[in-house]
Design goal:
Layout lengths: L4 H11 L8 E3 L1 H7 L3 E5 L9 H10 L7 E5 L3 H13 L2 E6 L5 H9 L3 E4 L4 H15 L2 E2 L6 H17 L5 E5 L4 H13 L4 E7 L4 H8 L26 H8 L2 E5 L1 H13 L7 H12 L9 E5 L6 H8 L4 E3 L2 E3 L7
Parallel strand pairs: 2-10, 3-4, 3-6, 4-5, 7-8, 7-10, 8-9
Antiparallel strand pairs: 1-2, 11-12
Helix pairs in contact: 1-7, 3-4, 3-7, 4-5, 7-8, 8-10, 11-12
Bound molecules: pyridoxal-5'-phosphate (PLP).
The site of pyridoxal-5'-phosphate (PLP) has 19 residues, from helix 8 and helix 12.
């Protein structure tokens, strides 16, 4: 199973006018802080609030005309992408999720007309349920990351970056299952092999980071995190994204809940952007100064904006937050 640059170009035609050409905006604050020109790729501006619509649309377009409906497992944002794409085609969609998925994301998916199945407290259990539905109800399965069409869809971001700014030297990408980072790295490096691509995960359950270190899929315990959209494993039978990340990612690094909080605050108070935890890890990594040999211009993928508003208001006003049994101490924003 492979993805090629041609697949990404084809995906571009599929998503055109619906999920493409998100803004690439300068961040004067991050430029000053890092001493390198920093640009933010705002996937928060997608109609579903996250990049996953790209992959969902591209996968949906490849289904036969007589398909009965679709199913997927999701940490929330893929489910919204699939629900949106299914509605556009008038198809039934069933989204399988774990109980760790924030209520706000469940409600958005239902509002798009999809059915939601909550099963267990892990992505694995949600995945098992989507496989069951595919087998028993004849629904087409749209995987969240380990699928060539999904990866090609996400990879269109890399193409847009290079087209807008051929001089980009570093791309910093949130990393979970690796569809986003793998697709972007493939697209960007096809155009310019010298580009560095760095994947960033939260330190509480970084499945791809650990799997890359081990050379095979590693299971992680799923715990509540500000970066809920990055939770879950890469699949014990991973077929595509582990290899893609091995081939094309130059580095991976981890950020803490505190560092994600600081990034969400900086994005809000400096860039005036509302970004969910999983979408903020790239900025978090930049702010820590831990990206080795950082060269500019730097493009940071700001991957999503879907969050719990009440929790976000607490976070930006410096109140404590309880993430499962982890107490994230509040801290007011300090420029
Ligand atoms: C899914 C998701 C990611 C990670 O994408 P992968 O392809 O699983 O690595 C990053 N940010 C947000 C907001 C997401 O929803």
């Amino acid at each position: 199973m492979t993805v090629t640059f041609a697949d990404i170009l084809a995906a571009r035609n599929v998503i055109r006018g619906v999920a493409d050409m998100t803004p690439l905006v300068p961040s004067p604050h991050l430029t000053e802080r890092t001493g390198n020109e920093v640009l933010l790729k705002l996937e928060t501006m997608q109609p579903t609030g996250a990049f996953k619509l790209r992959g969902a649309l591209n996968a949906m377009a490849a289904l036969p005309d007589d398909v009965e409906g679709v199913t997927c497992c999701s940490t929330g944002n893929h489910g919204q992408g699939v629900a949106y794409a299914a509605r556009a085609r008038g198809l039934r969609a069933v989204v399988c999720m774990s109980s760790l998925v924030p209520r706000a994301k469940v409600e958005r998916i239902e509002a798009l007309g999809a059915e939601v199945h909550i099963s267990g407290a892990s992505q694995d259990e949600a995945d098992t349920e989507s496989l069951r539905l595919a087998a028993e109800e004849g629904l087409a399965l749209i995987p969240p990351f380990d699928d060539p069409r999904v990866v090609a869809g996400q990879g269109t971001i890399g193409f847009e970056l290079i087209e807008a700014r051929p001089d980009i030297a570093t791309i910093v990408v949130p990393l979970s299952g690796g569809g986003l980072a793998g697709g972007i790295a493939l697209a960007a490096k096809s155009a310019n092999p010298a580009i560095r691509v760095v994947g960033v995960s939260m330190d509480r359950g970084p499945a791809m980071h650990l799997s890359l270190a081990a050379g095979h899929p590693v299971e992680v315990e799923e715990v509540p995190s500000l970066a809920d959209s990055l939770g879950g494993g890469i699949g014990s039978d991973n077929r595509l994204t582990l290899g893609l990340c091995q081939a094309h990612l130059d580095d991976t690094l981890l950020v803490s809940e505190e560092e994600i909080r600081d990034a969400m605050q900086a994005l809000f108070f400096e860039d005036r952007l509302v970004v969910e935890g999983g979408g903020s890890v790239g900025v978090a990594a930049l702010l820590t100064g831990r990206i080795a040999d950082l060269a500019g211009p730097v493009a940071v993928i700001v991957s999503g904006r879907n969050l719990d508003t009440a929790e976000f208001l607490k976070l930006i006003s410096g109140e404590d937050l309880l993430l499962g049994d982890y107490l994230l101490k509040g801290a007011p924003y300090e420029p």
